[in-house]
Design brief:
Helix content of chain A: 10-25%
Order of helices and strands of chain A: EEEEHEEEHEHHEE
Distance between the termini of chain A: 35 Å
Largest sheet of chain A: 7 strands, mixed
Largest interface: A-B, 54 and 54 residues
Number of strands of chain A: 10
Radius of gyration of chain A: 19 Å
Strand content of chain A: 25-35%
Oligomer: homodimer
Structural class of chain A: alpha+beta
DNA sequence: CCAAAAGTGTTAGGAGTACACCCATGG
DNA sequence: CCATGGGTGTACTCCTAACACTTTTGG
């Protein structure tokens, strides 16, 4: 920012977004199959170039909307990757984001150079282009950490949900099982949940539905 | 990364480094007085453009060395700031880093456009250019959090130090006082410290010197 | 012997963890 | 009446936090 003004026109800036969801008891990431070189046919994270007059956050939201039709999601900057060799086309610095979406909420519109898209379990990834496997790893770690010492994960569920659903969500993200009584005691003691009067009628004993207290 | 290849030559990429130290019982940041416009005469973080063939980390190390003569320090990527209006000269995305240096270890060489440099208590900042006050705030928060749930702060002390020095360091970073007995019990129980046989002879009762177990 | 900083244990409360049974419903 | 998932309490351990006096040295 200080120092001499060497102009670095060679560097391009992109955003890439690790869209995560939990479905079928698995933590999954949204990948798009590339229709163009390089890595044509391989899967990659949604993302694209940052435009001249938008913030980085705005670029991430825009790409997410354009490439996957996903809107109104939780989005957080993750880390910036800038190895000179990370993109064979030239020098590209990418600001990685991660997003959380409720299961079954992504229309998955294919973009111009995206032949196909799909959800993949983070432990069952296909061949993924660029340094995107590393970026996905960062996102998974971040989500797990956040879940440990904040009370997140809310963004991955519908407005009303049972405690069992919430617990299964946590288990899927953390990759281990949790004690039912301890989980309920802890999550209820945070005061972040409000019990609704509705029950989920599931064929067996009805389960109470909860909602998150509208923080902010 | 996917999507159409709109070239964004307008964006420039810099690194800015929040160099932190603890001196005189205060958490301080290294600022350089700008010798050129914009914000001439104001203080700013050391930093500069990322070169064509270096990683972001390498750029941060290089700028730190060039502008302040600081070498071999702890350095970690913090966050990336990309508001289109953050730099009046044009579109500049900056990858912010923070560095930790032991007190009194920075030669503070003035760079070409840096008329002067100095350490400022993070609660007593002068007028600071760009969005650098915000970046400093991010760094201070990150350091405080890291100190809470990892056992960091090691990088801010000389190789050998007394437990009282270490405690004062923690107190300066956290901005509150800590109980001596609890602090010692906790820090010693981590096994990260090794007691040397040397004592610091300070005029009063001698204090044992400790060192950090060479992790990594 | 006085001033100054080093060094040292115990107790109480809260958080986390392990663990097993009864309940309500639909079929 | 049975199968299925919903729902509940207690005991133990460990970590944290509060709290005060003795020791060693130099002057």
């Amino acid at each position: 920012m200080t120092k001499q003004s060497v102009h670095q026109h060679e560097i391009q800036v992109t955003v890439d977004i690790v869209v995560l969801t939990v479905d079928d008891q698995k933590l999954k990431v949204l990948l798009i199959q590339r229709g163009i070189a390089p890595f044509k046919g391989q899967f990659a994270l949604p993302g694209g170039f940052v435009l001249a007059n938008e913030t980085l956050d705005a670029a991430a939201f825009r790409e997410l909307s354009e490439e996957t039709g996903t809107e109104n999601v939780y989005l957080e900057q993750l880390y910036t990757f800038g190895d000179p060799k990370r993109d064979p086309r030239g020098r590209v610095v990418t600001v990685a984001y991660y997003a959380l979406v409720p299961a079954g909420n992504s229309p998955l519109l294919a973009g111009t150079d995206a032949a196909a898209a799909g959800w993949f379990g983070v432990d069952e990834l296909p061949v993924v282009a660029f340094d995107h496997p590393k970026i996905i790893g960062y996102a998974v770690n971040r989500l797990r950490n956040k879940l440990e010492y904040t009370s997140v994960g809310f963004e991955l569920l519908p407005k009303k949900f049972t405690l069992t659903k919430l617990q299964m969500l946590h288990e899927a993200i953390l990759g281990r099982s949790l004690d039912k009584r301890n989980f309920r005691r802890k999550i209820l003691s945070t005061g972040l949940l409000i019990a609704s009067k509705e029950m989920e009628i599931t064929g067996r004993k009805p389960a109470r539905l909860y909602a998150f207290r509208n923080l902010k």
